[in-house]
User: Fold these one by one.
Assistant:
Number 1:
Amino acid sequence: MVSYKELGLVNTREMFRKAMEGKYAIPAFNFNNMEQMQAIIQACVETRSPVILQVSSGARKYANATLLRYMAQGAVEYARELGCEIPICLHLDHGDTFELCVSCIESGFSSVMIDGSHHPYEDNVALTKKVVEYAHRHDVTVEGELGVLAGIEDDVVAAKSVYTSPDQVEDFLHKTGVDSLAISIGTSHGANKFRPEQCTRDANGILVPPPLRFDILEEIEKRIPGFPIVLHGASSVPQDKVATINRYGGAVKDAVGIPEEQLRRAATSAVCKINIDSDGRLAMTAAIREVFSLKPAEFDPRKYLDPARTSLRELYKHKTTHVLGSADRV
Ligand code: G3H
Ligand code: 13P
Ligand code: ZN
């Protein structure tokens, strides 16, 4: 058993308390490899932002659990070396079993998500409660989820029926003891968050998605005042990155994300954590495709991973400074 405290990491408790008080959101950036981790730390040190390093079960398999633990410890020391000791949390994204949560906690995670949102309500409660009881014995914080994020495959009716029900949140918190709650108010995962027929088009032909359900968020806030809310599926899908990908041989079609002004609004509410993965994937892929296309003779990985890392760093700095409001909070 390695405690996250030995690695210099923190759980989300203090981060969320300050975010709630200061009306901003903590960035939860997903990572799978060294370049992504470097870009996250560089950006958050430069903008003096607390950060959640977020790892999915797929990322953990991809990178290896042991290496990840050392990478997180390395991230803490790297931030210090860059000149700013920012709070860093290592968080399991969409944990689906009790066993996975335990394994992460034993290998240095300071926070876990148990995503029982696809289960019937009482099963979600039982699974989440079990994880909370174990995690809290190790001072690890737990994120639960109520409501299911719409997927591109869902039809509109199904998408509507899975918004978080404000009537359930108080009971869920009371029965499970979670530290934060992920809710569904119209975001979804990936770069194609809405089908074109769900959107309108602006004067330039760019897809404009339906607005988030702030009415549901406000109702939830009324039921559980001051409780930290989490927003998944919060990538904005920058159209310049999509255009670069497609200009250099890619085929990312009808990609649409959550407009930044809606995320800014969410960040000033009880939403204390905003999850961003797809935007990083797009930024990295755009930069790599550009090098591959303009310099086809290049085969030194550093020559395309370095521009990819720089592009990622700039994207993350933009998020902390201009979207989440977490810059200059350390
Ligand atoms: O919500 C999912 C995250 O974007 C992680 O995706 O499972 O492909 O690593 P992944
Ligand atoms: P995006 O796909 O919008 O980046 O969402 C990421 C996420 O919610 C990770 O849990
Ligand atoms: Zn998610």
Number 2:
Amino acid sequence: MTQTPSIPRTAVVPAAGLGTRFLPATKTVPKELLPVVDTPGIELVAEEAAEGGAERLCIITSPGKDGVVAHFVEDLVLEGTLEKRGKQAMLDKVRRAPNLIKVEAVVQDKPLGLGHAVACVEPYLDDDEDAISVLLPDDLVLPIGVLTTMAKVRAKRGGSVLCAIEVPKDRISAYGVFDVEVVPDATNPDVLKVNGMVEKPKAEDAPSNYAAAGRYLLDRAVFDAIRRVGKGAGGEIQLTDAIALMIAEGHPVHVVVHRGTRHDLGNPGGYLKAAVDLALDRDDYGPDLRAWLEKRLTR
Ligand code: G1P
């Protein structure tokens, strides 16, 4: 029997941003801790990494965002109190995050861009780690599982593999956009070969409507590429530019087109949709929310 390939041992979650689109809430609360129903976005991402087979989560934080990592630390006082009161369901919820995956903090001291944030993890990798996964916590990609599909593609085709979603032209300029071609021998039509990638192009310059959806399996060669790219879109060191450089130098890159749901937790509108979407599926809040929404929509 063939075993399903795991994603790389280390999963990287860049969480050093200021969360400006979420002010004033993010003045004191990191956006990664805002609850999607009752669970912080960062815990959902940790769950996805753990399910994919990662063994440790490196969270890239900035000074003042310690709370993001603290969410994964056991709170024995709180646990003791809940235990004494016989609150087993709450206790299970509190214990979940610390038991998901080993979490380490890596500090990015200057906000120099996503590429720079990812590069901060390189000194913490072991010599035998030939790849990493990167999960952007703004992107909620459902149902969980695309990383496993990406790992299968990497096992078969080598190089690096990213996740793509189709985005309408009028919104494409908010994304990293792929120049793609069909893989002639692909058994999965949603696997495409990438010939180039550009960060936040103008709609008329976008090479396709396939956009990067915040999930990456990157060969270790990415660190060398990040060192060699200069500042890109927004004056930042872009991960997209490093990937484009790797492609230009012959490194194989493929995408898996995700056909499920993707929510953007990084802005209030997308975050609300995610919360409603997840709440509707829950037994505790779903039925009441649905009834209220139906009534509210007729108003
Ligand atoms: C980042 C990446 C971009 C990607 C997007 C997905 O952009 O740079 O390539 O398409 O995430 O959410 P950001 O949204 O952080 O500006």
Number 3:
Amino acid sequence: MKYDYLIVGAGLFGAVFSHEAMKAGKKVLVLEKRNHIAGNTYTEKIHGINVHKYGAHIFHTNSREIWKYVNEFAEFNGFINSPVANYKGEMYSLPFNMYTFNEMWGVTTPAEAEKKINEQREAYHIDEPSNLEEQAISLVGEDIYEKLIKGYTEKQWGRPCKELPSFIIKRLPVRFTYNNNYFNAAYQGIPIGGYTEIIRKLFEGAEIRLNTNFLDNREEYEGLADKIIYTGPIDEYFDYSLGRLEYRSLRFESEVVDSDNFQGNAVINYTDRETPWTRIIEHKWFEKMGLESSSEGCLDDGKDEKKTVITREYSLEWKPGDEPYYPVNDEKNQELYNKYCDLASQNNKVIFGGRLGEYKYYDMDVIIGKALELAKNEF
Ligand code: FAD
Ligand code: UDP
């Protein structure tokens, strides 16, 4: 065999695994069907601003080891994600915290906020929340549910909140402190220079073929290596022989605006049902927040302070051929995925990894952890 490992997909999972494999003296070949590396973490410089081409990516983790690992490949700034919700022109702090409760009800203490939420919860007589609507009302009351959750969630998932599982909302913090940090994470930031640079460094020394779809020529590629790490969709690898897994898809509309400040924050969520997009990202604030008046800032070569790049994000029902972004982890799809796993376990040569290979919505820190774990098992 010419290579020890054939790695399908030049995203974060493939990059970390490749790096570790090369460190262990293995020879790898990487195939990527897109015309660039870095998968969905890909950033591209436009007017000196690192634009997150596949949606906002904020690195956050509670793992010291993973934070240390990723810092070997980039310096991180101190960005803390604090999105703001726009409900028909009313602005609210996120995640739900004392600032939000004050903006919504004028309350100023945790006791007042809890009293207000309890009153609204009791009016609904919910003992054990059985869907997202009940879960949301139990956590934050009816007013916040109606203005900040219902419209956004129904746009995001394309289904009524009553038909969605409650766990979706559980990952959002609810705090009785004045704290707008969106994540409960010990470490957080944006890599200075963009994510693509991290992935480029991880792949240093690897042979990479871009614009190359493994499935177009699978027999030939399979013959090139002892083992295959497959980070594409698991159902596609098996020619959908057991049926198709479902996803939610996204559409990104980017625009260069002649202004130095379009919306005053990196992320604004539009939480009403009528606005067609779910959020607008203003990319420069991932790198410049806290450095507004500094002449140096973080915008590097090609910087043009009079321009800003924004992206509107729309959530779409996925259909075959669309880019798969969010796995739909309901029972039906999970059952189908498990059947694909049974098929996969009969094949010793191929290992499925990453967000699409494992059909799970993994954050970047989890992906790094999974790829390191696999590398440890392999070498
Ligand atoms: P991918 O990045 O999808 O890489 C897989 C690669 O395989 C792709 O480049 C694809 O083109 C390629 N491929 C597939 N099939 C084939 C084939 N047959 N032949 C060749 N190549 C193939 N995580 C966070 O931690 N923080 C965030 O703020 C955050 N925000 C996100 C926002 C959005 C909108 C999305 C969609 C994800 C977000 N994530 C975030 C998650 C993050 O993107 C993932 O954790 C990470 O990108 C997963 O890496 P991966 O290598 O598994 O997958
Ligand atoms: N959510 C909401 N209003 C908001 C932000 C989030 O109702 O302003 C809900 C929504 O159901 C979403 C879930 O919380 O799917 C998780 O939010 P998160 O930001 O983690 O979702 P992401 O878009 O990053 O997957």
